[in-house]
What does this fold into?
Amino acid sequence: MSNKKLRYLLLMPVKSAIYHEVFMYKIIKKDGTAKRAEFETVHGKIQTPVFMNVATVAAIKGGVSTEDLEGIGTQVVLSNTYHLHLRPGDETVYRMGGLHKFMSCNKPILTDSGGFQVFSLAKTRRIKEEGVYFHSHIDGHKLFMGPEESMRIQSHLGSTIAMAFDECPSAKAEHEYVQMSVDRTTRWLERCKKEMNRLNSLEYTVNPHQMLFGINQGAIFDDIRIEHAKRIADMDLDGYAVGGLAVGESHEEMYHVLESVVPYLPQEKPTYLMGVGTPANILEAVERGVDFFDCVYPSRNGRHGHLYTNRGHINILNARYELDDSPIEEGCQCPACRRYSKGYIRHLLKANEMLGLRLCVLHNLYFYNHMMEEIREAIEQGNFAQYKKSKLDGMQEFDSADNKEYANIDKNWRKG
Ligand SMILES: [Zn+2]
It folds into this structure.
């Protein structure tokens, strides 16, 4: 980059603080405990419940461009702090004007804190009060990340919403360890909030209106989860996430945790269930008051030819689709179904053509985004329970040979 451009970026004026007045979360309608809301951000309004499309390294795997996202109903993009810190480096993204400019995206972007990846991907980590010492999963070099580092990286990225740095203890961890870990996560959250306030007040911050979501932890222990929820609810954050789920516990345990903990998180703030999940998981969580979601399933499954439809999953590589000239789903308005047949898409995947992956990922993301649109409509009309039942019943139809293979893959991918 030229010195002139760098100078320009560094001298960009901080936007006026009046934006704070328009940031608000407004519940439009409640249907039981399901929430239909609007969330104003500096990068636009989010209609909830919402599914955030996962662009780990500032791109959705499968050759999906920022332009494509506009055609499949994407409202929010989620990017990964840990991965972008390692490559290309958050300093590079900052010098390029922040993540929005870097990937030419004008939608709200949420960045996770990097905590989950440090704990799940990095080698030989040591957790201390100050943060985590670990080795890069790319080249093994030594790194350190604590609450302040995570906030600085996310500030460099300039995302709309930053996530607090936390430890995600294993679903199988002992009560005593989880309690100790959650207490430390609370102290880390206080440090995150302080550091974010400082970063947002600096003159050359990419997004001085960056928001902070706190994360509830506590594995599957109700007492720890509830006590932690009460403590973070008092900290007046911009939103609240339930973390540490979909890491090996059963679906029933996940739903139980939500029933226990969501009532203790502030109603008048967004409620985000991290890393979850299948369409059924999302429907169950919406019913329990959650309104933000993200998951790699639609893109990851799409890349393997596992496709979501209103009648259940299909594996498009199955021989039965070889001569099938119908779309993945009749009536689907995604770029794949509007034009191409199952037989053609199956051929593309078999021939390892990038277009095959792209079409499958676009269909799956459209399916998720469109389902959220249906959920919002159902809540507005006060018939979410009926909608949920008919959607779940419908998705049973293909629960047959096509899905046995899918079920195994689903199990193995839960930790992704
Ligand atoms: Zn489609």
